[in-house]
Amino acid sequence: MPIIDLHSHTKYSDGTATPAQTVFLCVKAGVKMMAITDHDTVEAVEECRAGAREAGIIFINGVEISAREHDYLHILGYKIDVKNKRFEEFLAQNRRLRNERVKRIIKNLQANGILIEEENVFSTVTNVASRAHIADALKRAGIVSSRQEGFKKYLAKGKAAYAAPEGADITEIIKQIKLAGGKAFLAHPGAVREIWDFPRWVNCGLDGIEVYYPTHNAQTQKDLLQIAKKYGLTVSAGSDFHGAGSGRRNKLGIEVPQEIFECLRENLC
Hints:
Blueprint: E1 3-5, H1 19-29, E2 33-35, H2 45-55, E3 58-60, E4 62-66, E5 74-78, H3 85-111, H4 118-122, H5 131-140, H6 147-155, H7 170-179, E6 183-186, H8 198-204, E7 208-212, H9 218-231, E8 234-237, E9 254-255, H10 258-268
Parallel strand pairs: 1-2, 2-3, 6-7, 7-8
Antiparallel strand pairs: 1-9, 4-5, 5-6
Helix pairs in contact: 1-2, 5-6
């Protein structure tokens, strides 16, 4: 079956790999179609596109945008015009709100006796700040042993340092992706199963869903394939690669049926 990966991150958001390293790993994994989907930035797209072209990999412009309704309600934008000024302004506003959220979380940590300063976090940020950078700062300070422990002890919803996300809702995100000539796909839907509202999301313009994902079990895949068929949504796949040291899946590439590959090529290329 073809191997694709339409969900991955670089150091320009909360990944640890450079664009060149990410493309190299895609080549090594036998990936035939790829997208870089950094959070709220398209900074890595052009470099990755050049590398993918040289390697003979089909490349699709991508970005991942978080909705304020839920920490893991994320929309993947594909085939976007990365030079669209209005869309870049939209992403820039999201980045500003991310920075403000990170600062609020740092203050919450300080209020709970965790002496992490803003410079400890932002000094390692290439472009987009996130809770992952705070967790990394906690790890460097010896307060936690991993990003995952940082989230579990301090940063997840319900923990002492948590601050809710701000920014656009899912309706506005889909709208902005469309205005930039793109297609909107729901990322890792298994993570937000308790708030599924596909009738509304499809009415807003949702184009597809990420069915094949590392943490989706067979039943979740089956349910999502049925939803895709019911609403005419395009099926996608992604690893959510974040790179070595991130504590996340460190392997690129997901096998998909040939018909899924062909459908994606028809709809996104």
